[in-house]
Amino acid sequence: MTVNVTWEANDTNLGLAPIELRYSIDDFLTSELIASDLANTGTYSWTIPFISGTSAKVKVIVADIQGNIAQDISDAAFTVNSNPIFTVTPVEKSGERYIKAEWLGIGGGVEQYLISVDGNIREAITVSGNDLGVPYVRELKVLEARKYSVSVVARSMGVYAASPAVKSVLFTAPATVSSVTGVEGDGAAASDSAGARPAAPGRAQAEPPAPQPPAETPEDGETTGDENGIIRGEDQTEDEGVNWTPWIILFILIILVGAATGGYFYWFGGEEETTAATKAPAEEPKKVSEQPKSEVVRAQKKRPGGKRSKRW
Q1: What are 249-272's pLDDT values in tens digits?
Q2: Residue 220 pLDDT greater than 60, yes or no
Q3: Alpha helices in 262-292 (DSSP H)
Q4: Alpha helices, DSSP H, located in the chain
C-alpha cells in the first residue's frame, strides 16, 4: 500500500539534514526511518511495508542549523496489514491428494498473494481493487503421503510482507496388506512363503497356483497309485461310472439267506431236473404186501416229489 505524507516547515535556518520522516506502530517507543534529507516543505510517497499493527503513525522531524528540533506526529493512527491469516487442510479426491488453503483478503492495497509449499512458490494470485474480506480458496496437488509446509504471503508495490506464517499439513499413507493366507474363491489360494502382493484396501489378491506336471502313464502291470489300488494291464479297463459294491453285497446276502433256509441247494440243483420231475405223471401207489421188498424200495426212489419253489 502506498500513501502520501505531506508537511510544512517555517524555519528558514535549516540544518544539514533538515527533514526526516519516521513511522512507528507502538506510539514511538520504537520507530523506523522512512526518508531523510527532504525539503522544507513537500510531499513524500511512501509504500507501507507489510508489518502488523493497528496504531501506526508517521512523525516529521525538523532540525535547524542551531540544533533545535521540532517534530510533529500524524493525528490519526492507521492500520498496517501483515500477511493474511489462513488455514490448510489435506484433501483426497479420486485417489489424488490436494492441499486446501483458505483465507480472507486483507485489503490495504495488496496486489498479489503468493502460495508456497516447502518454500517453493506454487501459485500467484493477482488482486484487483480492495479485496478486504474477499474469500480465497485454492487447492494444490501433491503426490506423496507426507508432511508439507505451507505459507501465504501478500505483496504490494514489489514489497513482500515480512515473517509470513508457515503452517503444516500431513497426509497419511493408506494401510497395505503384507501377506495373504487362506484366500477362498475361484480356487485361488496364497501362502506366506509365496509372498502375496499388497492389495488395495478392502480387497485381497492372491497369486495363482503353480502349474502341476502331467501325470505319468503307468506301464503294463503297474499300480496306478490311486486310492482304489487298481492294477491296470494292457487289456484291462475300468468302468469308473458304475459302482458294483451294492450288487456284490446283495448277491452275498442272497447266498447267506438261502444257505440259512435250505434253499441254497435248490438254487444250484438244476432247472431241468426239477421241471422234469414236476411234469412226470403220478403213479398210483401199490400195495406193499403185493411187491417184494426190493421193488418197494425202487418205487420209493423213483417217486418224484412236487416242484418246490426256489428259496432266496
Answers
A1: 888 888 887 777 765 445 445 544
A2: no
A3: 264-267, 271-279
A4: 245-261, 264-267, 271-279, 293-302
State the amino acid at position 169 in one-letter form: V
Region label for 226, one of left (φ > 0), alpha (ψ between -120 and 50) or beta (otherwise)? beta
Angle 22-26-29 from CA coordinates, rounded to 5°: 75
**Of 212, 286, 30, 253, nearest to 302 (Cα)?**
286
Helix, strand or coil for residue 299?
A: helix
pLDDT at 152 over 60: yes
Q: Are strands 147-156 and 14-24 parallel, antiparallel or unpaired?
A: unpaired
Phi, psi angle pair for 146, to nearest 5°: -160, -170
Q: What is the pLDDT of residues 87-139, one digit of tens each?
A: 999 999 999 999 999 999 888 778 889 999 999 999 999 998 888 899 999 99
Task: Using the structure block, give the residue that is written with the C-alpha cell 435250505.
Answer: 262
Residue 124 CB coordination number (10 Å): 11
Which three three-digit cell numbers place residue 164? 509470513
- Determine the residue type at 292: P
Q: Going from the N-terminus, what domains does the chain have, and what CATH number goes with each?
A: 2-80 (2.60.40), 86-170 (2.60.40.10), 175-211 (no CATH), 248-278+287-302 (no CATH)
- How distant, in Å, are the alpha carbons of 217, 218, 269 from that of 234? 12, 10, 39
Which helix (H) or strand (E) is 228 found in, with range?
A: none
Phi/psi at 271 (5° precision) = -75, -35
Nine cell digits for residue 127: 488482486
